[in-house]
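Retro notes (design track)

What went well: tokenization of the new backbones is finally stable.
What didn't: we kept losing track of which sequence belonged to which structure.
Fix going forward: every design gets posted as structure first, then sequence, in one message. First example under the new rule, 106 residues:
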């Protein structure tokens, strides 16, 4: 389950994709299939969420990992490298960024 907790020792990754509105649904479907078929089965994976802006020009993927090394190992896996190339073909650009939770309100 996806929970945001500043005290939890987790690696948070936010990946943003810039996409044309006509490609948005294709990207979302490919991303969700990648998470379901591959990413969620990798060691250290905790949870993920996919978000789309109302103009369908940006897709954001929020994921949590047990540790930074778990996320990096997933990225280096040959299957993920092939899936990343496919996702890149569906968007203008994307950028995964690792974050630490500083605080949570609410």
């Amino acid at each position: 389950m996806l929970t945001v907790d500043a005290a939890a020792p987790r690696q948070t990754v936010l990946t943003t994709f810039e996409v044309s509105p006509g490609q948005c649904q294709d990207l979302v479907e490919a991303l969700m299939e990648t998470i379901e078929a591959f990413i969620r089965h990798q060691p250290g994976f905790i949870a993920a969420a996919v978000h789309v802006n109302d103009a369908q020009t940006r897709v954001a993927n929020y994921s949590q990992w047990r540790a930074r090394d778990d996320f990096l190992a997933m990225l280096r896996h040959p299957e993920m490298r092939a899936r990343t190339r496919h996702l890149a073909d569906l968007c203008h650009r994307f950028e995964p960024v690792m974050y630490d939770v500083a605080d949570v309100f609410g």
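Added context from the reviewer: Strands lie at 11-18, 45-52, 58-65, 93-99.
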